[in-house]
Write a structure and sequence with these properties.
Chain lengths: 286, 531
């Protein structure tokens, strides 16, 4: 996602749609998007017979009806008809077809509603982030449409090199402060020397700081790195605490981290941040 | 558009391949006869120094195939869960069989078992142990290991082109490792190797085919069996193949390959009936048992305690030959296997063709050994071993209507030659045009002619030895590509399986149903109001 021109928003006919459209409208002032696709996936499977019986009396196919509905909400948010806003409705309950179409379109960014994992209501979003090749922004209901403070977890993996240029771009365009953060991990290879854990920790901190120095020469806009080392807590919990502490309004995280296992289509830290669904937006970079 | 009509290639693959082939042909022609020593040295070096790597690799392929077949990945369907099969299972089996071996089985079907029987790697010649071991070794060379190599390549090609929608060329298989770099120089390099391997693997088959035709003609009509005659035959048949490429193509090849299998079947049936029928059935069972019982010992045997060079001439030659033309067979198998699950695919490709091949070897080679064992002095075996290219005809001479049988044999080899050359040029053309299957016919003619040229040059530069060396030396680099392919396919399957799990997870239907019905009801009431 080196440019931000072609944006996809997944709508699900809920109140979230309006909130997300408003949010995008504000972002548009900063980023000047060129195309916005509103995408809806019709899930006919499991729809009750009563509703199916109502269909014929509508006088038009369901896809057309939903398309009108989505278009109307776009007009409502953006104030007028805008031909750069397009609507795509995926009928037939075929998720694979949707993903295929989506990847062909080569979007720069996909935007999805962030719902906590209660009642399985966030499952669709989490499928999309796993299945597409596109970077994905998760928006919680309470998201504020500005990026003043952005947290970027750094694990010195190849993904770090993908995250930082994006952070740089955002910082230039939206005037944001970038907070790099690194969580120390005591690897198994230190196990025989564990009695000396303070000393090891010092070495690790030094190593991370010197690694970061190299990064900082390439990306001078970064703030100083914060190193988290609460070993008893999981990485996502530590990062979550840090975000709340600096009161950040976005976190940019790689699709995968250092330990990438292809069987997990998304890294475990990103996955946990998404499924815990707090009140900050999460940008998962592919 | 008109300029493109006869030429539409992916330049970074087409030109390096073409130039390397031209260099090879030129060197061999310029050096002439001394080239035979060069081939000998190359072959000895590769088989002595890297033989062990081939032996490990072919066993890795088998283990991998069985693992994939039995594992949870076995349920993945080639072409996605909605894909349907294009051919009936019977038609599929017979296509698998005819694709893999063809000429090779005609050439070696009699010659190989008898050779092992007459010149065993160790122990006494013409004895019962050497006979059973002869069948065992022949089964090893034509059995599971060969088909596991094909299965790996075919499955990778089918998976990445049908499920992942990548172009149908070898480079696509490496997408999980290389990502979009497969479209750059790395992918080009892989495809160049694939082209060279296919071309030399095919040239080996074509060379064997033409040697056998010439051997048959000499046996029947006393024509001299020299490399000059062989090269003239090669030119003649390559031209026929070129005409077949140029004309109606698809239909012609389909017609020929169907009849190839039928005529081969008739030949098999003929020998089965007029030959030692009961012996064939009994030994078929016994040979299979023997093969299964000894498979680990024989397939890991590496000539460690003896330095005979036997293995280089036989086992390693086969492994390298199968590997070198695996892109060809693999692509063919991939094309006909859409809609099969991976489990069906693995066991279909591994078991059925293997059993048919075993039956062929038992009926031809096994019978030859049986007949020879009844004779004092072992003249039959001696005559068969004296010249592999006439082995089939010497054998058929033992039966009634032997002239008819031999003529059928010659025609069969010729027709296999034409179909191999035709479909081989299609495969090479597909790779050199970047995965297009409908590239202009002119290119296919070019490749048909180059295969013929390479085969001719190989015969000129050293006959059978040169053919074997060509297969072995292009097989070696491709061996490493295949090992990488195993890893890449595994990674790809892992991701695919994870994706199918994610897709099949059910959504939150209750909330969605409510919202959908709200929209519908709202519109209904709006519509009613308007009316």
């Amino acid at each position: 996602m080196n440019k931000l021109k072609k944006i996809a928003l997944f709508v699900d006919l809920s109140e979230m749609d309006t909130l997300m459209l408003d949010y995008i409208k504000r972002l548009d002032d900063i980023f000047d998007f060129q195309e916005l696709y509103l995408i809806h996936f019709i899930q006919m499977e499991g729809i009750s017979q009563e509703i199916l019986d109502l269909m014929p009396s509508l006088g038009q196919p369901l896809t057309g009806l939903i398309e009108e509905e989505v278009r109307a909400s776009a007009v409502e948010s953006f104030g007028r008809k805008n031909e750069n806003i397009k609507v795509y409705i995926q009928p037939e309950n075929d998720l694979e077809a949707l993903i295929e179409w989506f990847d062909r379109q080569k979007f720069d960014l996909a935007i999805l509603g962030l719902k906590s994992n209660k009642n399985g209501s966030g499952i669709f979003s989490r499928k999309i982030v796993r299945l597409t090749n596109c970077s994905t922004l998760f928006l919680p209901e309470s998201a504020k449409p500005h990026f003043k403070k952005i947290v970027v977890p750094i694990d010195f993996s190849p993904y770090t090199d993908k995250l930082l240029p994006i952070a740089e771009k955002l910082s230039n365009m939206a005037n944001s402060d970038i907070y790099p953060v690194h969580t120390l991990k005591l690897s198994i290879q230190y196990f025989p020397f564990i009695q000396n854990s303070n000393k090891i920790q010092d070495t690790l901190v030094k190593e991370a700081s010197s690694n970061f120095k190299k990064i900082k020469t390439k990306y001078p806009f970064l703030n100083d790195i914060t190193i988290l080392n609460h070993h008893e807590e999981k990485i996502n919990v530590q990062i979550d605490g840090f975000i709340e502490k600096v009161n950040a309004d976005l976190i940019i995280i790689g699709q995968k981290g250092k330990t990438s296992d292809s069987e997990l289509l998304i890294g475990s830290v990103a996955e946990k941040l998404i499924s815990n669904g707090k009140n900050y937006p999460i940008l998962v970079v592919k | 558009m008109i300029n493109k009509k006869y030429f539409d290639v992916h330049k970074p693959v087409f030109w390096p391949s073409t130039i390397l082939i031209i260099i090879f042909i030129t060197i061999t022609l310029v050096i002439g006869q001394p080239m035979e020593d060069v081939f000998e040295d190359i072959k000895t070096f590769i088989t002595e120094k890297t033989g062990w790597a081939f032996i490990i690799a072919v066993n890795v392929f088998i283990i991998f195939c069985f693992y994939i077949g039995f594992s949870k990945y076995g349920t993945i369907k080639l072409g996605g869960s909605q894909a349907e099969t294009e051919f009936s299972t019977i038609a599929w089996f017979s296509m698998l069989f005819s694709a893999g071996m063809g000429i090779g089985l005609l050439f070696w079907g009699v010659a190989e078992p008898v050779s092992h029987y007459a010149n065993p790697p160790s122990g006494e010649k013409f004895s019962i142990p050497s006979a059973t071991r002869a069948m065992n070794l022949s089964f090893l060379h034509w059995g599971f290991h060969a088909w596991a190599i094909y299965a790996v390549v075919a499955l990778s090609l089918a998976f990445f082109s049908y499920n992942k929608k990548l172009p149908l060329t070898i480079r696509s298989v490496f997408h999980p490792i290389l990502g979009d770099r497969i479209y750059g120089w790395m992918g080009d390099t892989i495809d160049v190797f694939a082209v060279l391997a296919t071309l030399f693997g095919l040239a080996t088959s074509l060379g064997l085919g033409v040697k056998q035709i010439s051997g048959g003609l000499s046996f029947l009509f006393g024509l001299p069996n020299t490399s000059g005659v062989q090269i003239s035959l090669l030119i003649g048949i390559t031209l026929i193949a070129t005409i077949s490429v140029f004309s109606g193509i698809e239909k012609g090849v389909k017609f020929l390959s169907e009849w190839n299998v039928r005529i081969a079947g008739i030949l098999l049936l003929f020998v089965l009936i007029v030959g030692p029928t009961m012996f064939i059935f009994k030994s078929f069972i016994q040979n299979i048992g023997n093969y299964i019982n000894n498979i680990i010992t024989v397939s890991t045997w590496a000539e460690a305690y003896q330095e005979e060079g036997w293995q280089g001439d036989w086992t390693l030659f086969y492994w390298a030959w199968w590997i070198s033309w695996s892109p060809f067979v693999g692509m063919f198998i991939a094309r006909v296997s859409k809609g099969r699950t991976i489990r069906e695919f693995i066991f279909g490709v591994l078991l059925i063709p293997t059993l048919l091949t075993f039956f062929w070897l038992t009926t031809l080679g096994g019978s030859a050994i049986y007949i020879d064992m009844q004779q004092e002095g072992h003249q039959l075996a001696e005559r068969i071993v004296a010249d592999e290219s006439t082995a089939l005809f010497v054998f058929l001479n033992e039966f009634p209507f032997s002239t008819v049988g031999s003529i059928i044999g010659i025609l069969l080899v010729t027709s296999f030659f034409v179909t191999s050359s035709d479909s081989g040029s299609l495969v090479i053309d597909t790779i050199t045009s970047g995965g297009k299957t409908d590239a202009p016919v002119g290119q296919r003619i070019f490749w048909a002619l180059s295969q013929g040229a390479v085969a001719a040059v190989l015969i000129f530069g050293g006959g059978l030895l040169a053919l074997q060396t060509a297969a072995i030396s292009t097989g070696l680099p491709f061996l490493f590509i295949l090992l990488l392919m195993v890893y890449s396919l595994y990674k790809g399957l892992k991701i695919e399986y994870a994706r199918t799990l994610v897709i099949s997870k059910s959504h939150d239907r209750k909330n969605y149903e409510k919202r959908l019905s709200d929209v519908i009801l709202k519109n209904l009431s709006k519509k009613n109001k308007n009316e």
